[in-house]
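Predict structure. Chain length: 349.
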Amino acid sequence: MINSRSIFDLPVKEKRLKELEHFIAKEDFWDDQNKATQILKERTRISELIEECEGIFTEVEDADTLLELSLEESDEKSLKEAEKQIFVLEKKIKQFSINITLDGEDDSKDALVSINAGAGGTDSQDWAEILFRMYSRWVDKKDFGFQIIDYQPGDEAGIKGVTFRVAGYNCYGFLKVESGVHRLVRISPFNAAGKRHTSFASVFVYPEIKDEITIDIEESDLRIDVYRASGAGGQHVNKTSSAVRITHVPTGVVAQCQQEPSQHKNKEIAMKVLKSRLYQLEKEKQDKKKQEMHDSKDDIAWGSQIRSYVLHPYRLIKDHRTNIEVGDVDRVLDGDIDQFVEGFLLQES
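Prediction complete.
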């Protein structure tokens, strides 16, 4: 008997759901609307996964019971029905397993995809355009949003590079699998001698990071100290505790002000400085993340490919990470890449 609970740590998810319900029940839950929205989204996702898992578990039990009875009574009709149920359940469990792998920080975001021709001249530029068509067809089949951001045509044929945006739930989670070098082996249509040619193109996928950075500061994260100002500043210096120092405890960022005679005014200025510093800190984090993604790109050449597309002397597409092989090359190049995407996600789960 298959235990669907083995593919989904149900007790852990149920515990997390109770924690979220506890947060939601608090009177000040909506004080921070951004945080509240994120908590509600997480609760919805976990609730849906738990419900789906429980439903699969019930169906597995029913199919198992039917299978046992049909074998005991040698009932061919019931046996075929049980086999049919098991076949449907295998598909459900596979899809469920894929869904629970897409829980990374950026998986649910929209994706930005760049395709660039590599070593191979005109053939590689043509290959880059073939890949662009393949992903465009895949996007259409998924009914995702699509927008071309940059398009550089090739010198004679194909494209030198293209960048496009794919919008939809878990777009980045699916498409991140495609990042890497793609290798094509075929008889070159641009070679008069009809020789076999190897072309390369890179696919780089990264989550769309919004430029807007919202800085939300919770009072509980602040330590505010007041003290007597020092130096030039008039009669209030060293007589009243007008100077303010604000420490953002989670990050350790400190801002202080002592220029104004009013403690309230100094606090207001210090808060502005603190927000500016936290903004810069978050911007540096995002810039670092983008740079790390850029640095992870492989050279577009031999030895670094993630997938090979062979059209001659035989027809076969092989993913070198999962060893998945497909002989129906035309179907894949027409956008049917789910078996490669799902195969990788399941392997990583």
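Summary: DSSP finds eight helices and eleven strands in the chain.
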